[in-house]
What does this fold into?
Amino acid sequence: MAGMGLKLALAGLIAGSLAACGRDDEGPKSAQPVDADALVVEATIAQLQAAMNAGGVSCRQVTEASLDRIEAYDQSSGVRAITVVNPKALTRADEIDAALSRGDDVGPLFCAPLLVKDNFDTHDMATTGGSISLRGQLPPDDAFMVRKLRDAGTIVIAKTNMAEWAFSPRQSISSSYGRTANAYDTGRIPAGSSGGTASGVAASFAVAGLGSDTGNSIRGPSSHLALFGIRSTIGLTSRDGVIPLAFDRDIAGPMTRTVEDGARLFNVVAGEDPNDPYTADGAGKKQADYTQFLDKDGLKGARIGVLRALSAVEDADPAVIAIFNQAIEDLKSAGAEIVDPFEIAELADHLAGDYFCPRFRYDMAQYLKSRGADAPIKDVMEVLESGQYGKDDPRVKNTLEFFRDFPADIHPSEWETPCPDYFDHEGRQAYKNDVIAAMDAAGLDAIIYPSWNNPPASIDRANQDYAGDNSQRVAPATGLPAVTVPMGDSYGNLPAGLQILGRPYSEGMLIKLAYAYEQATKHRRPPDGFPALE
It folds into this structure.
């Protein structure tokens, strides 16, 4: 267990490493050893790297400690977040240790243990999208984000469970690997579909993770597991190599225990990709360094609107709304100017608008082509015919049957009733413009609302008790960026998240506001039951 002496020694190592801006030849030889098993619990990337730079711990020890936590806790706790462990993780750690000893460039995220959702292609681990129909097959290469993160020095140590085909925001249950529980209470859901990444990162199985978000699935699980999650502007980040649900809405991105680590990962994963045509819109709009927005005073003078239309609703849980109202007071105390209530013209019509394109079958056909000739299926509807889908959640079969009525070989814009891409969709562009116009009129920097109005549902009633999911309401249809950051706990131990939404390509502003709020409130706490290993 991590004692006070260890924490003080680690603090000294970190301070010394940061002050030295590097290490001398004698540093690693004279440094106090650090207990890697204690170090990795709630660690930040900077803390891990400082300890390694000071010579107190090796990359192999950090990686082993993360793998040991998965072995010790994932199944025994009932969380079941992990699908497969990377058999080459320790080899990669040894390579990084050797590079560090030579003084080579090891990348800005060197030796950061990473969890990756099971719908991201990884050349060295199976990618199933939660479906047994793809279990055991290796993709030919890495997804864009995975490749970028590996190039930056991260170690992908494991893949994480998800809702089958990412269909459910309600829970994370798959036919390939089963059901994932909430690390704070295994009788509760982690939401969906990135619940495996959320619970795994919350329990310190790795320092950070990747999730995907078609409507809720980065921000919802991050909210339920006291994490920072970011859904970027459509066009700023690539979805290449990520099993799609709706390509005109899908976003991939980081899920982390701190805003700082989220910004560090976002620096690497954001940017143009020729294999994702949407990113042409974001060309030249990525900030040079998102960590420049990590300002503890970032809320001073910021104007923030409270979208009461999403929180002042009949089925909202009073305990969560009380936390949200306290968050507003905390924002004021940190220097923000609050506009409450903030209203958006035509919001009710937009919320009721039919802006979802049922293009899953078409998008899957395009993705399966990228898996090559060895792909076990060519059309996702083959899983209906074969019965290779989850039986534990009837919504999987029902959703597959719904998508079966749409063609696999005709682009949605060419359907008899056309389904335009995001940038050509009049309704979605009007919604986005109405939000921006309202923000402009009120002089706002951002809008806030609870990520969920309700606490995590019972895992036995995940579908029946689904309520309060605000992440679906604005960001996916408009394409605007949004983040979630911990805002406290309801009923003693159930995390809730504050969602902050902004203008197109305002990720820097959102990171600034989220960081300042995080630093002012310090709501993040680890779940019980996952202490440092002996």
